[in-house]
Amino acid sequence: MRTRLVIAFIIVALLSALASSWFHTLIGAYRLPGWLDDVIVGPGWLQGLVHTAPGQAAPHPVRHTALLFFGVAAGLLLAIITTFAIAASRPVLLPVRRLARAAQRMSGGDLSVRIQPRGRDELAQLVTSFNGMASALEDKMGALQQMEARARQFAGDVSHELRTPLTAMTAVVGILHEHPGLTGDAAAAAGLVQQEVQHLNRLVEDLIEISRFDAGTAQLVTDETDVANAVGQCLRTRGWSNVGTDVPAGLTARLDRRRFDVVLANLVGNALRHGGLPVTVKAGIQADDQGDEQLAMEVRDHGVGLRPAAIPYVFDRFYKADTARARSDGSGLGLAIAWENARLHGGHIQAGNHPDGGAVFTVSLPLNTMAASGPGTHSAASASRSADAAGP
Amino acid sequence: MATVLLVEDDPAARQGLELALRRLGYGVHAAETGEAALRDVRDAAADVVVLDVMLPGLDGFEVCRQLHRGSDIPVIMLTARGDDLDIVAGLEAGADDYVVKPVEPRVLDARIRAVIRRTARTGSPAETYGELMIDRGSLIVRRAGQDILLTPTELRLLLVLSGSPRQVFSREQLLDLVWEHDYLGDSRLVDACVQRLRAKIETDTSEPRYIQTVRGFGYRFGPV
């Protein structure tokens, strides 16, 4: 690298010397005494051109030509020097530019990027070090991702395995519970067993659901859905007659009916368990940041609201806002599942507090999740969590 | 009361389900493997098969396919995974319905009853649409004079759709009318059953004449 620069410098210096000696010969041949003074104060012919008074001497033709030569020669010299300078800097700038582009791609998440090193100078060494760093980072990330995938796979497998014994238990626990021969402690114990089997079923069900999101196998089956109808049915089937609704009639969106129901049921269930009455569900159309119309649904309670410190974590798995509460009816995965379902639709959920008190969960879903390809559209989407979505 | 052929390899689950079904009043014939189920299906005089997907040897899908080769006995798949792939494969194999383990006895009961109800007859005269003859009284469907073997679910779907020709039924409505599922039932049941029905009654399944798709809304019968 340094050698190239030195060579380029010598060439430019040599050329400059050549050019100046050529000038000297050129100008000397015309014998122009005091031409330099003319250049500095302004040549007489120029003054002559400006003041075209009659009787003044015309500019000397020889001086004219010499100045033209001087201009052309200076221009040429400048062009040659610039060309050499660019040629000399190219070998330095090109690898730097390639390196910058590679670093940019890497910060964009592409860890497979590598650069072909050329030569043996300092830049080539830098490129080799960059490649080494990139492959080390790629290996580390790959190992981490594998570990995470194994952990998730394990959670999913465990849940599946639990289903077989739970099938037998679920089938017979009712027989035990309804047995007329059981009284007192035995009846209470049977009741407890039934209740906990149901709880375990819910937990396993939710764990399997969330492991489907992790594995990217969760599927969206969308249908044209009347929102007021869907909200009404969700609340009715669960016996939540005390929940107020404000959904305009005729509001439709292309949604996965089951998943929409899961989102709403989890949010309302959460509001009823942890918030204060009255709980209300409001839906309407709203424009998002890009000006696209979205279905906006708001579930609000009138309790004490969320602790500001808890807001970023409410969608985390098994997160309990109130650490004193040992356990609730839910699996602890309800909000995480609601969040994943909203994401699968291409939407999101935000948690926050209403200025007049109480927690507010706002679901935003695109009105048309997927293009229709039949009466229903099936599509799979991988859903990985990002940290930005649970903000207030 | 109806007899259930229960196919489940896990002894505890088999015993538990058998107990629950007997208590609900069903006659139960339990089989450990798919091979045993195929062998016993005639002798057991079963009205419905409750079939586990994960079986040693022949898996549930294959058993379902072989069962439907010579019989129209309804099959309810019992899937341990509840994975979408399993469900889709089960429906493609010809399952009439499915339940996900662990299943509550009352849910299984409701599904079995609904499947059996589909074989109920109505007393109306035979109707003809194009080459298709539908006899609601004797539950016979013929195309160009040839008898077509339909499972109770396929038949019921055809009867519901052809009962109101040209009327568009949403998949939700069909789930309610044919499968008796609640409003969140799996609409893939409808799609899979429509595919199977088309394969049996349509001349060209890519351009269905009888069971037509109305994009974004559902299905309708005709106009022929």
The CATH topology of the largest domain in chain A is Heat Shock Protein 90
Kindly report the name of the CATH homologous superfamily of the largest domain in chain A. Histidine kinase-like ATPase, C-terminal domain
Rg calculated over all Cα atoms of chain A: 39 Å
Termini Cα gap of chain A: 54 Å
**Fraction of residues in H or I helices of chain B:** 25-40%
Q: Domain count of chain A, please report it.
A: 3
Oligomer: heterodimer
Q: Assign the CATH class of the largest domain in chain A.
A: Alpha Beta
How many DSSP H or I helices of chain B? 8
Structural class of chain B: alpha/beta
CA-based shape of chain A: elongated
Can you count the beta strands of chain B? Answer: 12
How far apart lie the N and C ends of chain B?
40 Å
CATH fold assignment of the largest domain in chain B: Rossmann fold
**Portion of residues within helices of chain A:** 55-70%
Q: What is the chain-wise order of helices and strands of chain A?
A: HHHHHHEHEEHEEHEEE
Rounded mean pLDDT of chain B is 85
Q: Quick check: average pLDDT of chain A?
A: 77
Round the Cα radius of gyration of chain B to an integer and report it: 17 Å
Number of domains of chain B: 2
